[in-house]
Amino acid sequence: MTRELTQWLAELAGELRSEQHSHDEVREIWRDNLATGTPDSKHRATELLKRTKAIRLERANQLRDVATEAPQSIKANLFKLAIRLETSGDDVTDDLCELAAEAAAGGNFDPASVASNQQANENSLLAGLRDEAMMNHRHLAGVLQLESEPLRKRLNRWRKKNGDGWQELTEATSKEPRYLYRVGDVREVLREAINAK
Predict the structure, then answer these.
(1) Which of 39, 41, 50, 59 has its CA 20 to 30 A from that of 120?
(2) Burial code of 86-99, b = ≥16 C-beta within 10 A, e = fewer?
(3) CB-based contacts of 178: which residues, under 8 Å, 6+ apart?
(4) Any residues with CB less than 8 A from the CB of 131 and at least 6 apart, and which?
């Protein structure tokens, strides 16, 4: 259960980081349209905001379901995160990464020990990611608690040497990550990034 829980929490953290970015953009669009938009654009923006809130509610419910089976030491914190996810616009991914590290450590969470064993926890988080998962550099950095820009550069160097194991997102904006990486193919690059930290 611990490995599966760690894997699930790490993947959820990556997905939530991306969804948080979209949620923030939708809230901004909604605010802009509320103030200056036409009735039709206000309606569309409100519907879009409702959909993003429904996605957050679904994620919160998934988190609750997992919390019921989680080790006692992190169960309450998972339920608290589910409530925050459902009721606020807060970004809970960092807290979720900490809980994934705690689950990887067998539920024995002590902030001082996490700091002293950070590399071991990050390697545990890496071990929790499925090989077939496709993630961008920001998601990977968030899940593995790494700096995003150095990881992006490292992955770009790897991508230029390898024809497989990555996918270009042709419709990504200039502010969005342009590439997804298959975890199994870049696992060694990620391990090197963790060890270089």
Answers:
(1) 59
(2) beeeebbbebbbbb
(3) 168, 169, 172
(4) 182, 183, 184, 187
Return the bridge partners of 179, or none.
Answer: 168
* Pairwise CA distance, residues 192 & 184, whole Å: 14
- Residues 6 or more apart whose Cβ sits within 8 Å of residue 159: 166, 179, 181
CA dist., res. 168 & res. 133, Å (int): 15
Strand partners, 9: none
Token digits of residue 65: 């379901």
Whole-prediction pTM? 0.48
- Domains of the chain with bracketed CATH: 1-128 (no CATH), 130-197 (1.10.1660)
What is the full per-residue pLDDT of the chain (197 aa) written as tens digits?
566 777 788 788 878 877 776 777 777 777 777 778 788 877 777 887 788 788 888 888 888 888 887 777 788 888 888 888 877 777 788 888 888 777 776 644 343 433 444 445 455 667 667 788 888 898 888 778 788 899 999 999 999 999 899 999 888 788 888 999 999 999 999 999 988 87
* DSSP state letter for 132: T
Contact between residue 125 and residue 100 where contact means Cβ atoms under 8 Å apart: yes
**Cβ pair 100, 17 in contact under 8 A:** no
